[in-house]
Amino acid sequence: MARFYEQHGRRPRRAAGLAAAVAMTAGSAVMLTAPAAHAEVVDVNYQCKTPIGNKGAVSPIDIKSTPSGGAYKLVMSFQKGVSSSPVELGKGAMKPSALIKLGGAESGTVPVSGPPNDKAIPANTPIKISDLSGTYTPKGSGKVTFTAATLTIKALGTTTTCTPSNHPQPSLTLDVKGSGGSGGGTGGPAAGGSSGGQLPQTGPADSAIALGTLGGTVLLAGAAGVLWLTRRHQRA
Is residue 212's pLDDT more than 60? Predict the structure, then answer.
């Protein structure tokens, strides 16, 4: 009876435990190869030079990313209004744009822009900035930070320039895999986009995840083979 349980009870449980452990290991390998991203809302103290004098305002800034081919769409969001106008700004009279400063593994800036105001802005009220979007293309690989930089507001033939004065922390950090080509940084094209803050998984990262999955499949197949040979030997 003891030999029966040894053959039909314990060994299958050990093999099942081995298969489960292999599956967990394969899953861990996939998770470890996924690129990481970190985003947070950061207060930015903008000091603005306007045609009628200097103004200041603090706005929480959020920067998110979405993978797009070999690049990333960036969206910069303002949670509070910045600066103001002594006269009403009619619909479509104000056009915002900004720069996002790169740090870490890359340097330079990414230009972002947004649509004109979709409704009139009353006089002497904070100007709500629409979401600004642009495209960032990695040049190399590593951890890259994205920080709010200069904001430009054009309205009624005038230009207001707002500069962060509190040395804000990055609003977004990405682990990127670059193709080694040009793009991103100063002079990169601005484009419409959407937000996501999602972890980028393009190019080499996808290959790494596929290899991790393949490795787990091979290990599971090996465990099944060991179990089959053990049972065949017992029957013999």
Answer: no
Cα–Cα distance, 196 to 189 (Å, whole number): 20
pLDDT at residue number 151:
96
Q: 3-state SS of the chain? A: CHHHHHHHHHHHHHHHHHHHHHHHHHHHHHHHHCCCEEECCEEEEEEEEECCEEEEEEEEEEEEEEEECCEEEEEEEECCCECCCCCCECCCCEEEEEEEEEEECCCEEEEEECCCCCCCECCCCCECCCCEEEEECCCCCEEEEEEEEEEEEEECCEEEEEEECCCCCCCEEEEECCCCCCCCCCCCCCCCCCCCCCCCCCCHHHHHHHHHHHHHHHHHHHHHHHHHHHHHHHHC
Query: What is d(CA 169, CA 112) in angstroms, rounded to the nearest whole number?
Result: 18
Residue pLDDT, tens place only, 93-109: 999 999 999 999 999 99
CATH of domain 42-173: 2.60.40
The pTM (predicted TM-score) of the whole model is: 0.62
The mean of the pLDDT values for the chain is 73
Q: What residue segments make up the domains of the chain, in order of their start?
A: 42-173
- Quickly state the pLDDT bin for 32 (edges 50, 70, 90): very low
